Amino acid sequence: MSTLLVVLLIVAVIATVVALVRGIIAFLKTSEEDLKGDGPSPSSEKQNRMMMMRILFQALAVIVVVLLLLVSRG
Fold this sequence. Notes:
Blueprint: H1 2-28, H2 32-36, H3 42-73
């Protein structure tokens, strides 16, 4: 059981890093016109989507760590 949780934790951490890097890349591609324009631009929508994915993967990683601690206690 704990081996499965460790694998899930590694996958969640990798997914978090990938989402973070993709969000940073989307942020760097934001042009000055996007910043001065009206309404949300496609790049800002991608930034928001990547931020939400990063938060989701971080939450998953925290839940897996808690489960690992509970399993190792028993």
